[in-house]
Request: fold
Amino acid sequence: MSDAFIKTIELVVNRAPVVDRVEPRTSLADFLREQRMLCGTNIGCEQGVCGACTIDVDGVPTRSCITPAISCAGSAVRTIEGFDDDAIMNELRAAFSAEHALQCGYCTPGMLMTARDIVTRLPDADDARVRLELSGNLCRCTGYVGIVRAIRRVLDARRARAAAPLAAAAATA
Amino acid sequence: MKAATYDYAKPLTCDEAIALIVPTGGMGKFVSGSQSLGPMMNLRLAQPEMLVDLRGIAALRACRIEGETVTLGACLTHAQIEDGKVETGTRGLMEYVARGIAYRAVRNRGTLGGSLAHADPAADWINTMCALDAQFLVAGPGGARVIDGGDWMAGAFTTALEADEILTGVRFARLSPTARWSYYKFNRKPGEFAEAIAVFIDDAARGVCRAVIGAIDAPPFAIDDARDLLRDANPQTSCFDAHLEAAGIEAGSYEHEVHRVALVRAAAAIRNQDGKAP
Reply:
């Protein structure tokens, strides 16, 4: 690290407060992987196209390869490692496994981030919308059919659960 | 690749930001979402010595509608526009356009002003602002100034903005309640930069019928009077080619085909709105 421009930043990473020193040119992805040893975030293209590095910054999916770590001072960052106890992410993980939505797994952390965004932000998404929203995450081995099916499975299950109490109420009425 | 080394500051006012950039003698750059500059720096196409982050400046997020004039702050993100977090006064045009910019993760951070200052001819806002005939609001060491839409872009990736000036926002006339618009973008994959863009704004109440031929490796080509395009339902025997030629697109080329398709489809989308709300 060349010292000239190094600055100290404070941020929250996976719910833990972090104080660290960064070069301004260090991307958020490199900061997480090389300084915080959080290697679940993968780096693909480093130009914001492939989506492999997508993580959660302040509650929304963000490209960590083209976002400098220093610009995230004061933010809450959540990587794939920070979603171990997340109910939606666990449902998505099970669905990805059931639908064979990964092969080499390189795109998977980013795919899961986008998938979680689709499930929470667009609960009524049809397959065409799921595909459109996934257009920013490239998979080069499994293909997209299994990934779309996995997201479909979680959307359908959540819809069914949301409708179940209504159906039960209608039955007793 | 990784970005070359640079210094970084995140001031709270435009004056502070300008004071930070002036001493860099043109080697510093303002940045907001870094969704265009970030890739360029990683590819080392851009190697600024200093980045001055504008996202801490609250004034750059201010939006207002006064009378018939809409002012939008430069640091609005595409996602905020997509989600209708601000009133754009464009009857859904900007919300629609925002949804088609890159991908949600990029839209969460990329900004209106950043895209306009980057001035990629194939980007969405530069063409949308041309259709809206927007003015560009600028702050610099000598104070504030307003740049007319037609003077904003000198060429691909080149604007009238000086190195020590900040694009603070855009200003345009609110569309009237009966205005119609259409936006057609041709790209092979959703989220890519466009190969062709066509925009129509038909606002008879304000006497505006304007179209834009965009993504042409040059500033957007504005058609100030686009009524002929909306009247002519037969693109094979029509005035479409005359406008494409005026925009400098060579007849018979691939570019001519995709731009014509975009223009024809955008015109058809307006015509199909006849008698109903857009």
Observations:
- Residues 254-271 of chain B form the longest helix (18 residues).
